[in-house]
Design a protein that fits this description.
five-stranded mixed β-sheet, 348 residues, globular
């Protein structure tokens, strides 16, 4: 009989969360001048007032490097102490090398392994986080940076109002370290629905300007964001409430055990409909989509960062993260928030 594996003698804790949003603020009034839309329509249907767009010269690795530095500063550690960089992105600077390597280069880090995780953009807030947690549990790494960064607006067709009102650019960074057993993250529950493969995707196609018929390019050439918003909404409402309940049941918990739940920041109104469906009051969640737009995988960690900063999350609280997006991939994890003295790696 094979001997059972020994339990891992520590948990996985989030030491700090870094963040970065570009300086350019785009209001609904700004979009009224570019697209066939109105502030009233955007507010009523999406719930977004402002979003931040990256400058033409800003790349995904620029956003990611800034978020990683912020995480290190908040934790009081040097970037040189990081053992592994994982970047969750669907908009790397180049098809190769990995955006994680570009981030390391910009921070002057040598000898630090890095790779990317493309889980469909928006689900990255839980998918890439779970990848980082599993690497930490291997025992080979003691401080891991999981960066979520996308320049989504560079995939937009300037004339496409269906996606142009939704997205913003941003980056976040989870800094993971070993913590005391019984605290920190639990194993994530991850799913994908391939039947909805084309609900949200980057489509490689030739597009032309409506006025003169000349060729059109996005910030990624002939690659353009395509999304069927109603299908995304229907998927979330039909699947995410039961998914959250399944996640809780897996950990022998109920919704009453949740101190805070953070959903992917897809749509302000959708998030509150999801709260109703799982039977939780609106004060058990936080949002930033109204100010930042849909920031892909960075949305969940940026909300969590705000919750920590404002004291909404404190040691011992139970936090649920739930994300969904392209490929209709969706994931969730439960975190028992870690006290500072529960971390096992000295800060340096």
């Amino acid at each position: 009989m094979t001997k059972a594996a020994s339990p891992i003698p520590y948990g996985v804790g989030i030491r700090a969360i870094g963040g970065y949003v570009p300086s350019q603020v785009v209001t609904n009034a700004d979009l009224e001048e570019r697209l066939d839309t109105t502030d009233a329509w955007i507010s009523e249907h999406i719930g977004v007032s402002t979003r931040h767009w990256s400058a033409p010269e800003e790349r995904t690795s620029d956003l990611g490097a800034a978020a990683l530095l912020d995480a290190c500063e908040r934790a009081g550690v040097s970037p040189d102490s990081i053992d592994l960089i994982i970047c969750g992105t669907f908009t790397p600077d180049h098809m190769l090398p990995a955006a994680a390597v570009a981030i390391a280069r910009k921070l002057g880090l040598t000898g630090v392994p890095g790779f990317d995780v493309n889980s469909g953009g928006c689900p990255g807030g839980t998918f890439a986080l779970d990848v980082g947690a599993k690497y930490l549990m291997s025992g080979q790494y003691r401080r891991i940076a999981v960066v979520l960064a996308d320049t989504t607006t560079k995939t937009l067709d300037p004339e496409d109002r269906t996606v142009g009102v939704i997205f913003g650019d941003a980056a976040a960074c989870y800094l993971l370290e070993p913590c005391a057993p019984g605290t920190g993250m639990t194993p994530a529950l991850l799913r994908s629905d391939p039947s909805a493969y084309e609900t949200a995707f980057i489509k490689r196609e030739q597009r032309t300007w409506s006025k003169d018929g000349s060729g059109k390019v996005s910030g990624f050439g002939s690659n353009f964001m395509h999304m069927h918003g109603r299908s995304v909404r229907n998927f979330a409402l039909d699947n995410m409430p039961n998914f959250v309940l399944e996640l809780l049941e897996h950990h022998e918990m109920t919704v009453d055990d949740i101190d805070l739940i953070i959903f992917h920041q897809a749509n302000y109104h959708l998030i509150h409909l999801l709260m109703e469906k799982i039977g939780l009051p609106p004060e058990r969640t936080l949002t930033n989509v109204e100010r930042l737009g849909n920031t892909s995988g960075a949305g969940v960690p940026l909300v969590l960062r705000e919750a920590v900063d404002t004291g909404r999350v404190k040691a011992g609280d139970t936090v649920v993260l739930a994300s969904f997006g392209a490929g209709m991939s969706h994931g969730g994890t439960v975190i028992k928030w870690t006290a500072d003295d529960d971390f096992l790696v000295p800060a340096h």
